[in-house]
Design a protein that fits this description.
The structure is a single chain. Helix 1 packs across helix 13. With 456 residues, the protein is of the alpha+beta class. The chain contains 13 helices and 16 strands. The protein is globular.
Length: 456
């Protein structure tokens, strides 16, 4: 890093510390008007609002309605107090100062890092007989909207369009993929949702041939974590002619492959409901009270093996367990739902156990929250007090026999991606005030102009 970059880093650290300091002392300057008390009242209102949200999720009828009203009224009352004291400007000032402190601090700490995660790429020849499966309905019709089939065929690929109106039900995409390999295909690809991606990816991994992800689904989480362009899925087809391979892991829940995650507990039970697809919000609100208070649904136990603790970890009676193919970010709210790496050879595990409103509020502490378990493991076995439980495997609702063994196959999938792609943004470092103080106090070699005539 050159001296100019070091100088920017130092000044960003100084701006961060100065803004944080001003935010702390600003209320003291309004002591006669009760600025400190108002700030405290604002903090209490946020806590009350969060408790009310928990009540709204775990109750029904008039109690839920009252809780929703309280969740809105608490912060509104705090704002009204600022207005009555003619200190609304203080609220905006504090928000601005803390926002500036966080932004400048993150900039100072991340200026030495690469902005994109670097992955190992392998040069391999382009496929001679690529075979692509495309779902015309996926992502609201992206296959047709972006002309994916025509572009792929122009690049020499065989395209199989799934028939959404098939009278005897959805096609077995894994069987279609195996037939394609038997016919000489040397690459498999999917333009569709992550559930379809996982099924075909498992076939590609089984036969050790490359797999092409086309970001034509709704959320495209797998494509995002591969660093692909989610706005224009047609760019993914560039990998057919100018691409590289990266090795990524593949997860399994029982015998069911997943590229993203397998969820157990509350979410899995909700998506298993027949009414969920027709009315997601209403169904979720109807089922959550019993699921969150454990009045309904299985009592889960998750056994984690291959963790940092040689004895393993046991999660007893969590409301929800998420087992992911490599861990999700937890230290940066902007990065939640992202995996920085997909080649670590481990499962990410998030377990949530909340026994009351206080623990629900405590989840704001992130990794340090009492009700949240975040870990990595080589294997996770989820058991229950029922013979079969609902499991959401890459968003697909399944019923699996207990116990359900989740495992990861390191480097099982040869993902072919375009040589030129957006990439995965690197995680921003957590705010470290001690390190910021060191950066701010550092004096650069060129901080002061040098008199070249001083010594001759």
């Amino acid at each position: 890093m050159d001296e100019r970059a070091h100088a920017r880093q130092r000044w960003a650290a100084r701006v961060s510390l100065t803004s944080a300091g001003l935010a702390l002392i600003a209320p003291l300057g309004t002591a006669p008007s009760g600025g400190v008390a108002l700030v405290a009242a604002g903090g209490v209102s946020v806590a009350v609002s969060l408790v009310a949200v928990w009540w709204a999720l775990t109750r029904r009828g008039w109690f839920r309605t009252a809780a929703v009203g309280l969740a809105v009224a608490a912060p509104a009352a705090a704002i009204a107090l600022f207005v009555a004291a003619h200190l609304l400007w203080l609220l905006f000032l504090l928000l601005g100062l803390w926002g500036l402190a966080v932004w400048a601090g993150r900039f100072a700490l991340s200026s030495t890092q690469s902005q994109v995660v670097r992955v190992v790429e392998y040069e391999t020849p382009p496929p001679a007989r690529p075979f692509l499966i495309m779902n015309p309905r996926s992502g609201g019709g992206k296959v047709e909207r972006f002309g994916l089939a025509a572009k792929a065929e122009k690049l020499g690929a065989r395209v199989h369009l799934l028939d959404p109106a098939r009278p005897d039900g959805p096609e077995d995409v894994a069987a279609v993929a195996r037939d394609a390999i038997a016919g000489g295909a040397d690459l498999l690809g999917v333009a569709g949702g992550d559930g379809t991606q996982a099924l075909v990816a498992a076939v590609a991994a089984e036969h050790d041939i490359p797999f092409l992800v086309i970001s034509a689904g709704t959320r495209n989480h797998f494509a995002m974590d591969l660093g692909l362009d989610r706005d224009d899925p047609s760019t993914c087809l560039d990998a057919l002619t100018d691409g590289v391979e990266i090795r990524v892991d593949l997860g399994f829940a029982g015998g069911n492959p997943f590229v993203n995650n397998a969820s157990f507990g509350a979410y899995a039970a909700i998506v298993q409901s027949a009414e969920y697809r027709d009315d997601k919000v209403r169904t979720t609100l109807d089922l959550l009270p019993e699921l969150l208070t454990r009045e309904k649904g299985p009592r889960l136990t998750a056994h984690l093996a291959g963790t940092a603790d040689p004895a393993g970890v046991v999660l007893d009676s969590p409301q929800a367990v998420l087992v992911s193919n490599n861990p999700y970010r937890m230290d940066d709210i902007a990065g939640l739902g992202r995996r920085e790496r997909m080649d670590l050879g481990v499962l990410g595990v998030l377990g949530i156990k909340v026994d009351g409103a206080a623990q629900a509020v405590g989840l704001l502490r992130g990794r340090q929250a009492e009700g949240l378990t975040s870990a990595t493991a080589r294997e996770v076995v989820v058991d229950a007090d029922q013979d079969a439980i609902a499991v959401g495997v890459d968003g697909e609702a399944l019923m699996l026999t207990t116990p359900v063994r989740c495992r990861v196959e390191p480097g099982a999938l040869r993902a072919r991606v375009p040589r030129t792609r957006p990439g995965v943004p690197a995680a921003k470092p957590a705010l470290d005030w001690r390190r910021l103080r060191k950066l701010a106090a550092r004096v650069g070699r060129t901080a002061l102009p040098r008199n070249r005539w001083a010594r001759r």
